[in-house]
Amino acid sequence: MKDLYTFDATADDAFASYDSVSGAYRRIFERLGVRFVVAEADSGNMGGSRSHEYHILSSAGEDTLLTCSKCDYAANQELAVGTISPDAANTALPTEQDQKMSQMLNLSGAFSPSLFSFVVRDVNGEATRQGTVAAVVPAGRSANMTKVTSELSKYLDLDAQEVLDLRATRTAQDNVTLFCDEAIPQGQQVHLRGSFRDTVEGDGCHACGAELKQVRAIEAAHTFYLGTKYSDALGCRYGPERKAAEMGCYGIGISRLLAAVAEVRHDQKGIVWPASIAPYRVCIIPTNDKQAEFASLTHTIYDTLNGTNSMTDEIIIDDRKGGFGRKMKDAELIGYPFTIVVGQKAFTEGVVEVHARKQGANSSIFSVPISTLDTFLQKSC
Predict the structure, then answer these.
(1) Are residues 230 and 248 in contact, defined by beta-carbon separation less than 8 angstroms?
(2) Rounded to an integer, what distance in angstroms lies between the CA atom of residue 282 and that of residue 304?
(3) CA gyration radius, the chain
(4) Locate the Anticodon-binding domain: which residues (predicted)?
């Protein structure tokens, strides 16, 4: 894991640090050459008021995102906010269970209420408050537990030392706190209105109104603005006024990132590593492993390329004993971006073949003079 923590004097400075790190993360993913999305996310137990996940798009991903088809809005489904037309909100019919729950809560309308019991615990784990909250959403929709938890924490005005435990229940205590989704028309007596339903594909983007699309993705990085939650608790203060530092927390899962790239950049032949993270950018393979002159020229090419600043320690020679064809297949399997083939033309014409690995297609093959190999590779890598 690559971890980073920032400490700033003011919230504005902390947000500037956040944007700077976020920009660096975006450039990292761009250099990887993968399709990625930066999605608004729930901070969870980490706390703070700003959080983003960095996802590599993949049908094998474990996360569900909702992305706008027009603007750059994207969010994890657990946090995504969309719009729903009044007609769409009233088309579904409530289930029998929905009707029973509505009667218990003295609600009149086509709703899908969900009950949650909650307990607030202090720093020692002792329960200080408890109760029941009902999240009322349009019929046919589900209450979003993450959104309910977030809004209930604000409603109860929890401090940094308190923890909220929320669980689904079917029984209600007296004095139920009633949260009503914004898509439900006014008329019900509620404690709080807001977005409490799951957002689904086809809902409108809250930013521009275009249709939201659902995609699967693999989370590989996360950024958090933490505020003073931890600096207050740990006494991280500065200056004569002893103000708490504004903190940020950032991380990239290195091994997870490699696995995700391999998942989305492979074909039937093997992995197709981007040059920026390939184990080696170039593999040199002589067509003849028995004649000394082939080995000598191969090592000369290696030494020349390895001596350039951009290619140092980025080159490997496959000098194993065995068939040339097997070595070429292994090079495709491992996924070197470039394979240099040192054949007979290297001696007669001073050129070698450079095979550029391509995903889902045959490698592009270039005849390159040995004297310009370094220039060719620097431009290509």
Answers:
(1) no
(2) 13
(3) 29
(4) 282-379
Give the residue from 116, 184, 187, 122 showing the smallest Cα distance to 150. 116
73 belongs to a structural domain: yes
Positive or negative torsion for Cα 12, 14, 15, 17: positive
* Number of other residues whose CB lies within 10 A of the CB of residue 44: 14
Q: pLDDT tens digit string along 126-171?
A: 999 999 999 999 888 899 999 999 899 999 998 877 889 999 988 7
- Structural domain that includes position 373: 282-380
Q: Is residue 271 part of a domain?
A: no
pLDDT digits (tens, 9 = 90+) for 116-129: 999 999 988 899 99
For residue 130, list its beta bridge partners: 119
Residues 304 and 364 in one domain: yes
Which tokens sit at 8? 């700033």
Specify the number of domains making up the chain: 3
Domain assignment of residue 227, yes or no: yes
Residues 194 and 91 in one domain: yes
Residue 180, domain member (yes or no): yes
Dihedral sign of CA atoms 88, 92, 98, 103 in order = positive
pTM of model > 0.70:
yes
Where do the H-state alpha helices sit in the chain? Answer: 11-32, 86-89, 96-104, 145-155, 229-234, 254-264, 292-306, 324-334, 345-348, 373-380
Backbone torsions φ then ψ of 63, nearest 5 degrees? -105, 145
pLDDT tens string 23-63: 999 999 999 999 999 999 887 767 778 999 999 999 999 99
> Do the beta carbons of residue 76 and residue 65 sit within 8 Å?
yes
Q: How many Å apart are CA 346 and CA 360, to the nearest integer?
A: 29
99 exposure class (CB count in 10 Å sphere: 0-12, 13-18, 19+): middle
Same domain for 92 and 226? no
What DSSP character marks residue 119?
Answer: E
Residues 16 and 133: their CA atoms lie apart, in Å, by 37
Written as six digits, the tokens of 303 are 């030494």
